[in-house]
Amino acid sequence: TNFDAIFSSNIFGIMGLSFDIASTVFVETATVLNNTSGLTFLTNVFRQNTSAPNLFTVLLGRSYDKDGPEEGAFTIGEYVDGFESVAQQTKLFRTPAQTVNVTTQPRWSVQMDSMTVNGKQFQFNASSVPEADPGKQVAVLDTGFTFSQLPPAAVDFIYSSIEGATFNQTTGKWTVPCECTTNLSFEFG
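^ thats the sequence. predicted structure below, dont judge the formating
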């Protein structure tokens, strides 16, 4: 795999937070060596401390963001300070659950109720995921991907709402004035 984007920033490692079955190391050791020596980092952490809850949290931060935390946080087995009440919230279950006969790489994915831009709801097509409830979409939660994985029509809906934004037909990307924003909301649960 080409990791030049992170290697050029002097980062020479990546810790995945996926499932054992999604790890090529685990699959190889389980099928070739017939053992579990290739279990993922999270599985090994949870096996070492069986009294800790099997959860991890990610609080995304952004440098120089006046509206949110500059520093992010990552925890294993506990909630980020100040967010402990999340434990009492309604749980969002993975969709599809992929608990048996996994034929595709499992993902951290949940059902999304809607996406609105400046109070206007975007109308998605029907979900192609058979387990999705009617009118809902399945969203993949991925902290390591730079670009949104939205249908082009949803991307256009977002960026066309920003005054002065233009779409470049040659590059296939939107150019947005630095001082402009939009109110984008994703609703879950």
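The chain is about 15% helix and 15% strand.
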